[in-house]
Amino acid sequence: QRVMMGRNLYKAINDQINAELWSAYLYLSMSMDCEAKGYKGIANWFYVQFQEEQAHARIFMNYLNSRGEKVVLLPIAEVKTEWDSVLDMFKDTFNHEQKVTSLINNIAAIAEQDRDYATVNRIAWFIDEQVEEEESAREMISTFEAVEGNKYGMYMLDKELATRAYVAPSPLAAE
Ligand code: MG
Fold first, then answer.
1. For the chain (length 175 residues), average pLDDT per consecutive 10?
2. Cα(61) to centroid of ligand 1, in Å?
3. 100 CA distance to ligand 1 centroid (A)?
4. DSSP string, 99-120
5. Which pLDDT does position 165 carry in this prediction?
6. Fewer beta carbons under 10 A from the terminal one: N or C of the chain?
7. What is the distance in A from the centroid of ligand 1 to the CA of 96?
8. pLDDT at position 87, please?
9. Residue 149 alpha carbon to ligand 1 centre in Å
10. Maximum CA pair distance of the chain?
């Protein structure tokens, strides 16, 4: 007889799928705002971010499925569609990723409380990932602060960010 995952833990992970898809939608919206403003390279950077967030949702979906739990999709809430500047987008990105980190930490805490070590292991990848997400958002903030009001700097940065390419995260690499 199968031992079910704790219901609080199940709910936290199922909700996290929605949170990752909302993140994807937020970064897609930033990407579209950049496209509208002529920043094709920065739009590309956020589009890759959109793809990564979908991959995060996929990892959680695969995990619930592998535990014999059903994924129940929830409505995706509306996102902001217009930012005053690219710097503001990265400030929102940083604040948002800090919130995601606390959601991930909460899943880890419930998993530990439940002694659900499979989930403790799975969530460890996300804990590391969040350190990278926060670091990269912080670096983007300093970078865009450095070129504020400088059109040539913005042009060069836009060119640089055009080179970012999507790479499937390691938990999905075998798919
Ligand atoms: Mg994510």
1. 85 98 98 98 98 98 97 98 98 98 98 97 98 98 96 96 96 81
2. 13
3. 7
4. HHHHHHHHHHHHHHHTT-HHHH
5. 97
6. N
7. 10
8. 97
9. 31
10. 65
pLDDT of 1: 52
Q: Based on the number of CB atoms within 10 Å of its own CB, is 57 exposed (0-12), middle (13-18) or buried (19 or more)?
A: buried
56 Cα: distance to centroid of ligand 1 (angstroms): 5
How many Å lie between the centroid of ligand 1 and the Cα of residue 151? Answer: 31
pLDDT of amino acid 4: 85
- Residue 18 CA to ligand 1 center (angstroms) comes to 10
- Compute the radius of gyration of the chain from its Cα atoms: 18
